[in-house]
Amino acid sequence: MNDSLKLYLELLKYDRSLKKYGTSLREQDREKYLKLLNYSVKLSDYVHWQQKSDYLNIMKNFVDLKIDGKEFVSQFNKLHRSNQEAVKILKTDLKQLNNFEPNPKSFGFTEWTSEIDLACDEFYPDFQPQDPVEFAFARDEENFRTFVADIIPQIQKYCEE
Amino acid sequence: MNLTLQSLLKLSKILSEHNESEFRVERKLVEKNYTENKTGSYVVQLGSSTLSISKTNNFPCSEGEAEEFFNQLNELERQKKLYYQILEKKEPLASSEIGILVRGGGLGKSGPGPRAKAAARRNVKNSGSFLIPGANGFVQQRTYCRYHENAPLSCKPRVKVSNSPFQGDGNNPPPEDGSEFDFSQYKGGSSPFKNFDYDNENHTRENVAFSNQRRMNHSYDGHAEKCFGMQENRNKQSLQNLKKKIRDYVESAETERIYGSYRYETPAYHYKKPDEDLIVTVNATNNEYISVRNATDFQSEKLEIDGNLGYDSRPSMSLKLRDPKQ
After folding, report:
1. Low-confidence residues of chain A, pLDDT below 70?
2. What pLDDT is stored for residue B199 in this prediction?
3. ipTM of predicted assembly, 2 dp
4. Could you say which of A34, A41, A131 has the minimum Cβ distance to residue B298?
5. Do A137 and B24 touch (CB under 8 A)?
6. Mean pLDDT for each 10-residue chunk of chain B (326 residues)?
7. Closest CA to B112 of B11, B32, B12, B19
8. DSSP string over B64-94
9. Residue of A126, A122, A147 whose CA lies nearest to A62
10. What does the pLDDT read at residue B87?
11. pTM tops 0.90, yes or no
12. For B213-309, CATH number?
């Protein structure tokens, strides 16, 4: 077990024990809480990264016009949510965590999947340029496709390693 | 045309807010056969970018009109050079020599990807495209966010007119001695909303507005089941239920209100319970609901650190040192 994982497990247990007394690590020690969060992100990175080829294929299919925006959102959400569920389960399973070691190559991966997840939420298939200006943070299909195309090289980097 | 600061700023403003002008400019990235374009738009190859120029009133855009539009751009470029000459009392620097270069980076990058470049190369011969000398400084920025047209604080330009850090809506001319450069306008800088009045007494948890019906429909379709376990079909009643659930979450005593931003583009309130990943985001400029979602670990960490949700879409900033001999 590496030092980061050891620290993470200690902090996780400490946080749980604090919660029994009505407080939390976040309230008691923000610096340590940020370390806990940071390692959670790494776990998450690794779980999502294991499906990197699936992410890339879905994105390429969308950019290559093989599927439309709605289909992309549906496929992406399905994959993303199943990975999110896997992360949740992993974080509650201390036994499994004890033998878990994320691959450093995966670090940073969810920065991009989170971004697409957010953009999926901004995609309105019926968005029109003449829509009122107060209708902020909305993307039409072309804009959404451009956005996804811009992220493809970032995902590709993980696939090449 | 006499050079005046006002005329330069005015023209910058017209071009940067091109949705308000007669012409609309869009960057084409996906493969399309431009020769069969029936939308009345005109396609232009500008360096590595392929731009489609159309008229906002949907009338066909002729070659002459497109050329006139680009003449305006050329004039702007000329004015800019004159402006630099006056400021520095010497020949203007070439773009590559300007000390600080600002370019769209990452998600905000202005150039198309390899597929778009390939598509542009394939289509350029048949599209009636032409190359406009001197207009290479004009590159399209992301256009999805129409918020900026009314933005009081966040004024990220959607059209980049030059490789100068001083661009956008014309209200940010260069500081004369360079000492007051505002880093918060660029990627990696501090929050641009540090001085925003988050404590506006009208923007309380109780009066979060849900006035946009399309947004509510969208939230219901995308998040009602995941966030609140709502499985019934979307209808008036279920939408009311969703609104109530969001409101209850926002108004709960356990829910924290985080003063932050959304993509660093608008100040925002994020409502979140400490041990939950559910997050409700509200536009802090008008207290209008933006979204509800289950935040990822990455998003939760970012929220904890700087209160921002989403990628830093501000333009990148890089320092380039000049050769002292030049």
Report:
1. 1, 132-136, 161
2. 92
3. 0.94
4. A41
5. no
6. 51 53 52 43 55 63 71 71 62 42 40 60 49 43 42 37 42 55 77 90 93 90 92 94 96 95 92 93 93 95 92 73 62
7. B32
8. HHHHHHHHHHHHHHHHHHHHHHHHHTSPPPP
9. A147
10. 59
11. no
12. 3.10.450.200
Q: Under an 8 A CB cutoff, do A137 and B147 touch? A: yes
Nearest to B182 by CA among B156, B213, B144, B215: B156
Nearest residue, CB atoms, B301 vs list A24, A41, A64: A41
Contacts of B309 in chain A (CB under 8 A): 118
End-to-end alpha-carbon separation of chain A, Å?
24
Domain ranges of chain B: 5-181, 213-309
First vs last C-alpha separation in chain B: 32
Residues in chain B: 326
DSSP state at residue A96? H
Long-range pairs, B4-10, Cβ under 8 A, ≥24: B5/B83, B5/B173, B7/B79, B8/B76, B8/B79, B8/B80, B8/B83, B8/B170, B9/B170, B9/B171, B9/B173, B10/B170
d(CA B54, CA B69): 11
CB atoms within 10 A of CB B251: 13
Neighbours of B17 (CB within 10 A): 18
pLDDT at B22: 59
Q: Which of A19, A114, A149 sits opposite B29 (nearest CB)?
A: A149
How many angstroms separate the CA atoms of B265 and B205, rounded?
A: 21
CA distance B17 to B207: 32
Residues, chain A, total?
161
Task: Please state the separation of Cα B323 from the chain's center in Å.
Answer: 33
Look at residue B26 and give its three-state secondary structure. Answer: strand
